[in-house]
Write a structure and sequence with these properties.
Blueprint (H helix, E strand, L loop, with lengths): L2 H5 L15 E5 L3 E10 L2 E11 L9 H19 L6 E6 L4 E9 L3 H12 L10 E13 L2 E12 H13 L3 E7 H13 L7 E6 L4 E7 L2 E8 L3 H12 L3 H10 L6 H9 L3 H29 L9 E5 L8 H9 L3 E3 L21 H7 L8
Length: about 375
């Protein structure tokens, strides 16, 4: 088993894919993304795809209301498919209820580690162990301080967030067969788009409403995995405060906002007497600077691990990645190529999906790529 294949078997709660057909359901905070693929690795074809925005998804909407909306939207979509959609669903978790750690354990068999994982994991998990579901995957053997050890990815997620995801899909009439992690789903989608042997190291940045997920992938292995809480809703709230408007108005402003990156950008806005554009950019920039600092922190941590390490480019996805001129701003500040991540580029039948919508589906595509045998 390659390192990349090993990573794909991370799962929670002993859920297993029981069928060769499953749909990826990305339960976002402002919308649900659904992808149903047919075929096998390298020969995928899009069977179904849907983007279901929550009707009331402002930053101040309470979690129970969001869940109720999600159940209603998903249930109605499943009903309209009239049996043409697979009933098995793969969903994922992210945020501060999920912990990913790269740990070196003493050399032992997988069976022995399975028996001891609760004890071995405790120093690395900031939650009470009974509150979480634990999983791990052994990546390979290493020698450290003249002792044989094994490099392991340790994943823990609070049971409450897993149960919430399971309940949503079950109430919508679907069967949850696997729980994944957003970061690993992103990597899965990247490998399907660019291949598992791509020589370049990339930083995947998925900017959602509440959470931004970052993954640095090197030779099919994630070297840095982070979730930070500077995302789309931080921009919405900043606009809301500055313009003294409600959440819906702020969301509408965010859609037409542009980050004015260069002096020339600002001069053009002034020449056009576009005061709103100047003001929106001024409001948004401090939030983006905070996000930029977190992205730079991830890059610095990776680069500090070896003098020969370098990142070739940054791929952006998620709904908030569509913020006007964000790619130009990040490219200028990071001094790296920054591009939109298209997870459908090697999937047949996806031609009708608009280019600006494709990055929204990065996690959903990664989930939809799961197949029987991934977790065995």
């Amino acid at each position: 088993m390659t390192l990349a294949e090993a990573l794909k078997s991370i799962r929670f709660d002993k859920l297993r894919l029981k069928s060769k057909d499953a749909i990826g359901v990305d339960l976002g905070s402002t919308s649900i993304k659904i992808v149903h693929l047919k075929g096998t690795a390298g020969r995928w074809k899009l069977h179904r795809c849907a983007h279901l925005p929550l009707t009331n998804a402002g930053p101040d909407v309470a979690a129970p209301e969001r869940r109720a909306q999600a159940v209603g939207l998903l249930k109605e979509y499943v009903r309209k498919q009239k049996g043409a959609l697979a009933k098995n669903a793969v969903v994922s978790v992210s945020g501060n209820s999920v912990i990913v750690r790269f740990v070196k354990f003493p050399k032992m068999s997988r069976e022995d580690l399975s028996k001891m994982i609760v004890i071995e994991a405790e120093p690395y998990i900031p939650f009470s162990i009974p509150e979480v579901n634990l999983d791990f995957q052994i990546l390979g053997d290493v020698v450290e301080d003249a002792q044989k050890k094994m490099e392991t990815i340790l994943v823990a997620a609070k049971k409450e967030i897993i149960n919430a995801r399971v309940e949503i899909v079950q109430q919508a009439g679907l069967d949850p067969v696997m729980i994944d992690v957003d970061a690993f789903a992103l990597q899965n989608a990247f490998e399907a788009s660019f291949g598992t042997t791509t020589p370049e190291t990339v930083l995947l940045v998925h900017i959602g409403a509440f959470v931004t997920t970052m993954v640095i992938v090197e030779n099919g292995v994630p070297k840095v995995v982070r979730d930070v809480f500077i995302a789309g809703n931080a921009v919405t709230k900043a606009l809301q405060r500055n313009f003294q408007c409600d959440g819906k108005q702020a969301e509408s402003m965010k859609v037409r906002a542009q980050i004015l990156v260069t002096p020339e950008d600002r001069e053009r806005a002034m020449a056009d007497a576009n005061k709103e554009s100047l003001q929106m950019s001024t409001v948004i920039l401090p939030v983006m600077k905070d996000l930029l600092a977190e992205i730079q922190r991830s890059l610095d941590f990776y680069l500090s691990q070896g003098s020969d390490r370098q990142v070739a480019r940054v791929l952006l996805s998620g709904g908030a990645s569509r913020l006007g001129n964000l790619m130009g701003y990040l490219a200028q500040e990071l001094r790296l190529p920054v591009e939109a991540f298209d997870p459908f580029q090697r999937i047949d039948g996806a031609q009708s999906i608009a280019p600006e919508l494709r990055p929204l589906f990065a996690v959903a595509v990664g989930l939809a790529l799961r197949r029987e045998g991934d977790a065995g």
